[in-house]
Hints:
Helix 7 (about 160-170) crosses helix 9, helix 7 crosses helix 10 (about 205-220) and helix 8 (about 175-180) packs across helix 9. The N and C termini lie far apart (about 40 Å). The chain contains ten helices and eight strands. By secondary structure, it is an alpha/beta fold. The chain is globular, with a radius of gyration of 18 Å. The strands form two sheets. Strands 2-1-3-6-7-8 form a six-stranded parallel β-sheet, sandwiched between helices. Helices cover about 55% and strands about 15% of the residues. It has two domains: about 5-145, Rossmann fold (3-Layer(aba) Sandwich); about 155-220, Arc Repressor Mutant, subunit A (Orthogonal Bundle), CATH 1.10.10.10. It has helices spanning about 15-30, 40-50, 70-80, 90-100, 115-125, 135-145, 160-170, 175-180, 185-200, 205-220, and strands spanning about 10-15, 35-40, 55-60, 60-65, 65, 85-90, 105-110, 130.
Amino acid sequence: xxxxxxxxxxxxxxxxxxxxxxxxxxxxxxxxxxxxxxxxxxxxxxxxxxxxxxxxxxxxxxxxxxxxxxxxxxxxxxxxxxxxxxxxxxxxxxxxxxxxxxxxxxxxxxxxxxxxxxxxxxxxxxxxxxxxxxxxxxxxxxxxxxxxxxxxxxxxxxxxxxxxxxxxxxxxxxxxxxxxxxxxxxxxxxxxxxxxxxxxxxxxxxxxxxxxxxxxxxxxx
Length: 221
């Protein structure tokens, strides 16, 4: 049995306290695993990571005023030796490929059993990829049919465009989006213009309506 000194250390990044509590209890019950820290946002995670000596980071996609996908990119650059496992409720068809492209080593849905979550953690800690059956099917189908085949317009948005679109759907204004993303208002407006073009929307009103509709449908899924 592993002793406290040689347990694999897991750092949690999720904006829901109950999820972090559940994960902490689940992980700390394992003889060879232990939670070494937690955060609810990307900036807090990057600040707290320095002294943890984490073996693995578990990241959600939506974080407090920040993006899990952008955090994965930052972690890959700042801590390339520490693998990232994504644990999220979001639709795999929309996000799985994005998180792997950003540098994650695994994707597991929060609807999966505790056993599968632990299995995903162990697999990534072994230096392997964790890809569930649904994600594997999605990625294989796209590989066979081509990268843009059978994709919705939403799926063709860039990571940043999707993040802006999602925030619009939450009712966040342009200025606050600029603050959250640490960019100028003009840059956010440029993202909005690209989104309108890709989604074939005529104006800001249609953009906002579509963003709200999409957000509501995503939450209902």
